[in-house]
Design a protein that fits this description.
Elements (H helix, E strand, L loop, with lengths): L20 H5 L7 H15 L5 H6 L7 H4 L1 H4 L3 E5 L5 H5 L4 E6 L7 E2 L3 H4 L5 E5 L1 H4 L3 H7 L5 E4 L14 E9 L2 H9 L11 E6 L1 H7 L6
Parallel strand pairs: 1-2, 1-4, 2-3, 4-5, 5-6
Antiparallel strand pairs: 6-7
C-alpha cells in the first residue's frame, strides 16, 4: 500500500535499483510517507517470503483473510478495525459489535481519531499494515494493550519481532508467483488480481513455538 504523500523531503535520492534491501528498509522511518511506503515494502519483501521457515509453516493454513479466520472468535464481541477493508461489513457486521475507523471515513465509519476513545473498550482490535507506514502503530498498540493488536492485510510484514511490542497475531500475504505479481504491479497484467499471485497467511507466537527456537528471529 503506497501513501502518495510527498510531505517532508525524501531522504533517498536517485534510483533504488541495486540498493541493498536493508538500506531501502531504513526508509520506513521517513516522515515522507511515499518514501516510507517503499521502506515498509522492503521489510515486507524480506519477511513475507516463502523460504522463511515460520512463513513456510503458515502457508499450510486455510488461506482465508484475517476476518474469516477470526469470525467464530469475535462473534458477540466488541471489535474495532482500523482501516475499511474490502467486504468487512459482510464478513463481520452481523455477528459482532463492529466499529470501523478510517482516515477517510465512509458512511457508518468513525474518524480515525476515535481510536483514543474506542480501542480501550474493545475485545478485539485489528489494524492495517499501513499503520507501520504512517507511524500510528505505536499509539494503537498502547491503546489496545489490554487485548493485543492483530495486524491484517497484504502490507503486513510477517516479522516475529512485532510480537515483542504487543502485536498478538500477523495476518499477511505471501507471494508465491513473483513473475505474475511483478506484471500486475507494473501494469503489464491488467486482468489478474493481486491475491491470485500468492496466499493469505497468518503467523502467531504459538506457530513460532511450533517451528522451533531457531526460527524466532
Amino acid at each position: 500500500m503506497t501513501l502518495a504523500m510527498e510531505t517532508r523531503p525524501a531522504q533517498l535520492q536517485g534510483s533504488f535499483r541495486g540498493m541493498a534491501l536493508s538500506a531501502l528498509a531504513e526508509a520506513a522511518k521517513s516522515w515522507n510517507f511515499a518514501e516510507a511506503s517503499l521502506g515498509v515494502a522492503a521489510i515486507n519483501a524480506y519477511w513475507s517470503a516463502p523460504d522463511h521457515a515460520p512463513v513456510a509453516l503458515s502457508l499450510q493454513g486455510s488461506g482465508d483473510d484475517a476476518f474469516r479466520v477470526y469470525r467464530n472468535q469475535v462473534a458477540g464481541k466488541k471489535v474495532a478495525v482500523i482501516g475499511h477493508f474490502y467486504r468487512l461489513e459482510q464478513t463481520l457486521g452481523g455477528i459482532c459489535q463492529l466499529s470501523i475507523l478510517e482516515k477517510r471515513p465512509m458512511p457508518g465509519d468513525y474518524p480515525d481519531s476515535a481510536c483514543e476513545f474506542l480501542l480501550p473498550l474493545q475485545d478485539y482490535v485489528f489494524a492495517t499494515g499501513v499503520s507501520l507506514t504512517n507511524k500510528t502503530l505505536p499509539r494503537l498498540l498502547e491503546l489496545s494493550r489490554h487485548t493485543g493488536l492483530i495486524l491484517a492485510g497484504p502490507s503486513v510484514p510477517l516479522a516475529p519481532s512485532l510480537f515483542h511490542w504487543g502485536v498478538r497475531d500477523l495476518q499477511g500475504f505471501v507471494v508465491t508467483d513473483p513473475d505474475v505479481c511483478r506484471a500486475i504491479v507494473s501494469g503489464e497484467h491488467q486482468r489478474a488480481f493481486i491475491f491470485e499471485t500468492g496466499k493469505r497467511v497468518g503467523l502467531s507466537p504459538a506457530m513460532l513455538a511450533h517451528a522451533g527456537p531457531g526460527n524466532r528471529s
